[in-house]
Amino acid sequence: MKRILIRCAVLAALVALGCSPKPAAPRRQLSERERDSLIGASDLYGSSVVRSALRMSDTVGARAHRQDAQNPGADAVPADSDH
Prior knowledge:
The protein starts with a helix and ends in a 13-residue tail after the last helix. Helix content is 61%, strand content 0%. The mean pLDDT is 81. The longest helix has 24 residues, at 47-70. The protein has helices at residues 2-18, 32-41, 47-70.
């Protein structure tokens, strides 16, 4: 009788271990831009300010890109410089 009880206990333990939830895959951390975009798209108080700031950031970035495209190598130091 003891053997049957022990076998049942071991079997129940194995079944319980087999049914345990699997560890979740690690979640990727969002970048600051992604978090801000999610906040801007929400209905939270102040989300319109976040959207405006993201739009302004995009505008400034596009302007800088256009200026860099018009003046390629403007930041480069000449090779025959005395520096």
